[in-house]
């Protein structure tokens, strides 16, 4: 068990005080950006990682609605490259909330990467090598991204004071959900 006094990491749920980089859209405590160029799914993902974010992982109906307002085809962080028919998000979570277009995914000749389709606003699987624009997702300025947003406090404080500071920032103390997070 972790002693509460040792926990000085905050996890986001981030409030209005936390801003996104200039030109990015803020939605529900995260920052989003539409790529200017089109490229393959792999190239899109590499570019997102290089910018300290990742391809978008859609984890709520609100986020799907928000992304539906984009009027072009965009890669999302979802693929079944590892095992045909087993769709996984780039953060390792299995697919539970789904917005596939009618008759999709159809793997019409090795289609292993998902994008939001411009005509239906729902998802289609397609050739990973095809060029689409994509959506970056990251955290507000100053927070580190690791699929959730984290802020490491620079000062030490009691657990109660730490919690109050987190609440003040619209966040809370980190809840450790996975062995990766403990590291
Ligand atoms: Ca496949
Ligand atoms: Ca497939
Ligand atoms: Ca398809």
Automatic annotation (TrEMBL):
<dbReference type="Pfam" id="PF00059">
    <property type="entry name" value="Lectin_C"/>
</dbReference>
<dbReference type="InterPro" id="IPR050111">
    <property type="entry name" value="C-type_lectin/snaclec_domain"/>
</dbReference>
<feature type="domain" description="C-type lectin">
    <location>
        <begin position="27"/>
        <end position="137"/>
    </location>
</feature>
<dbReference type="InterPro" id="IPR001304">
    <property type="entry name" value="C-type_lectin-like"/>
</dbReference>
<protein>
    <recommendedName>
        <fullName>C-type lectin domain-containing protein</fullName>
    </recommendedName>
</protein>
<keyword id="KW-0430">Lectin</keyword>
<dbReference type="InterPro" id="IPR016186">
    <property type="entry name" value="C-type_lectin-like/link_sf"/>
</dbReference>
<dbReference type="InterPro" id="IPR016187">
    <property type="entry name" value="CTDL_fold"/>
</dbReference>
<dbReference type="InterPro" id="IPR033989">
    <property type="entry name" value="CD209-like_CTLD"/>
</dbReference>
<dbReference type="GO" id="GO:0030246">
    <property type="term" value="F:carbohydrate binding"/>
</dbReference>
């Amino acid at each position: 068990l972790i002693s509460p006094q040792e926990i000085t990491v905050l996890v986001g749920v981030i409030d209005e005080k936390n801003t996104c980089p200039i030109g990015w859209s803020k939605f529900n405590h995260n920052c989003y950006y539409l790529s200017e160029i089109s490229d393959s799914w792999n190239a899109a993902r590499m570019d997102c990682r290089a910018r300290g974010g990742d391809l978008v992982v859609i984890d709520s109906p609100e986020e799907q609605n928000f992304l539906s307002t984009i009027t072009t085809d965009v890669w999302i962080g979802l693929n079944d490259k590892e095992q045909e028919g087993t769709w996984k998000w780039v953060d390792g979570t299995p697919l539970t909330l789904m917005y596939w277009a009618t008759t999709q995914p159809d793997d019409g000749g090795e289609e292993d990467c998902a994008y939001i389709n411009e005509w239906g606003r729902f998802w289609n699987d397609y050739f990973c090598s095809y060029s689409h624009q994509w959506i970056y997702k990251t955290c507000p300025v100053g927070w580190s991204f690791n699929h959730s947003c984290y802020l490491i406090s620079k000062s030490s404080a009691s657990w109660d004071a730490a919690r109050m500071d987190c609440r003040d920032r619209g966040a809370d103390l980190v809840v450790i959900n996975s062995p990766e997070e403990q590291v």
